[in-house]
Specification:
Layout: H1 7-23, H2 26-33, H3 41-50, H4 69-82, H5 88-102, H6 105-116, E1 122-125, E2 132-134, E3 137-146, E4 153-157, E5 163-167, E6 173-178, E7 187-195, E8 201-202, H7 209-242, E9 246-247, E10 250-251, H8 256-285, H9 290-315, H10 327-339, H11 344-359
Parallel strand pairs: 1-4
Antiparallel strand pairs: 2-3, 3-7, 4-5, 5-8, 6-7, 9-10
Length: 360
């Protein structure tokens, strides 16, 4: 695999960085997360519509850019760096991959153009508790559904290995916001008691086990890119603070212990970046290494982000623990994302099974 970014990929990376630096700064983020929905509608309109980032992995025939996971990972890294409060990952990665993996040509033509252009915001239900599809009736509940309370479209993974696409306003669907640790990526609790038309089932009922596994594997590999971006912000803001804060008559950045900690942060982040780029390349190649590469990236990035966010708070001293500083937002995002789509321990267990199967 060649990890050298092309000129077009660097352009996408730089465009995302410049755009988000202007449109999704810390002050704008605080205003959104302290609001009632925790959703930045203006940012979504620009990010998905004007910039066209939501359609990066959507084929051109469905109004997308026809690019790949590497380009998506570069954008996700910048989104993680700013904690952008929009359902971008849910729409552009999870929902798009579910429809691409299991949908019919008719279903792809119906939903993908609207997702690619940002006309619809999607959420993926079924990463924790899952409802059940029995016959044509969907019943039960899905918990910890990210941005479920603002989604227009729900892609639902069921306990019987089906994938169902439903408009969020479908009668019989009840969505309740959940109060959770991470205010930058809100969760919802969704209850289902609804008749499902055959056209809403992706592929065949009960036949989407492989598609669901693929969506979650790709999701984990690309979530690592977002986590790496958050960890990078933790390092950047700590380095900047160390150049300003004076203690015992010296800048704290001159203390050897502080230097060593920041150096360790940098090493972990660079390893995390290499891991998610490798995972993205494996996704694009769609070979046997996909699941393993994504599990490696996900496991490493989760631990990296948790550690870097914790060290950032420690190195900021007293101010790092305050509500007014942004450190706690990244610390909470790190904790929340490490459990979403499977914990690091679960990911390592998946990785161990893959390795053992390869050695048998």
């Amino acid at each position: 695999m060649d990890f050298t970014l092309s000129e077009d990929q660097r352009f996408i990376q730089e465009s995302a960085e410049r755009f988000l630096a202007e449109a999704a700064g810390p002050d704008a983020l605080r205003a959104v997360v302290e609001g009632p929905t925790g959703f930045d509608e203006n940012l979504w309109a620009q990010l998905a519509g004007e910039m066209g980032f939501a359609g990066l992995m959507v084929p051109e025939q469905y109004s997308g850019s026809g690019l790949g996971a590497v380009e998506m990972a570069l954008v996700l890294e910048q989104l993680g760096r700013t904690l952008a409060a929009v359902p971008f990952f849910e729409t552009a990665v999870l929902a798009v991959q579910a429809i691409l993996s299991a949908g019919s040509e008719t279903q792809k033509a119906e939903w993908l153009p609207q997702l690619a252009t940002g006309q619809l915001k999607a959420s993926f239900a079924g990463t924790a508790a899952r409802p059940t599809l029995s016959g044509n009736r969907l019943t039960g509940e899905a918990t910890f559904v990210t941005f479920g309370h603002v989604a227009d479209l729900l892609v639902v993974a069921t306990s019987d290995h089906s994938l169902v696409v439903l408009p969020a306003n479908t009668p019989g669907v009840t969505i309740e916001p959940q109060h959770t640790l991470d205010r930058t990526r809100r969760f919802a609790h969704i209850r289902f008691d609804v008749e499902v038309p055959a056209s809403a089932v992706l592929g065949t009922a009960g036949g989407s086990e492989a598609a669901i596994s693929r969506v979650l594997a790709i999701g984990g590999g690309l979530l690592a890119a977002e986590q790496t971006g958050g960890a990078q912000y933790c390092l950047d803001t700590t380095v900047e603070y160390s150049k300003q804060r004076v203690q015992f008559g010296r800048l704290i950045g001159s203390f050897q212990s502080v230097k060593h900690t920041m150096a360790d942060m940098m090493v972990k982040i660079e390893a995390s970046r290499s891991a998610f780029l490798y995972a993205a390349a494996a996704i694009d190649e769609n070979g046997e290494e996909l699941e393993e590469a994504c599990a490696v990236a996900r496991s490493w990035a989760s631990d990296c982000y948790n550690w870097c966010a914790g060290e950032a708070i420690q190195l900021h001293g007293g101010i790092g623990f305050t509500w007014e500083h942004h450190c706690h937002l990244y610390f909470k995002r790190a904790r929340a994302t490490s459990s979403w789509l499977g914990s690091p321990a679960q990911t390592r267990e998946t990785l161990a099974k893959i390795i053992l199967e390869e050695t048998v």
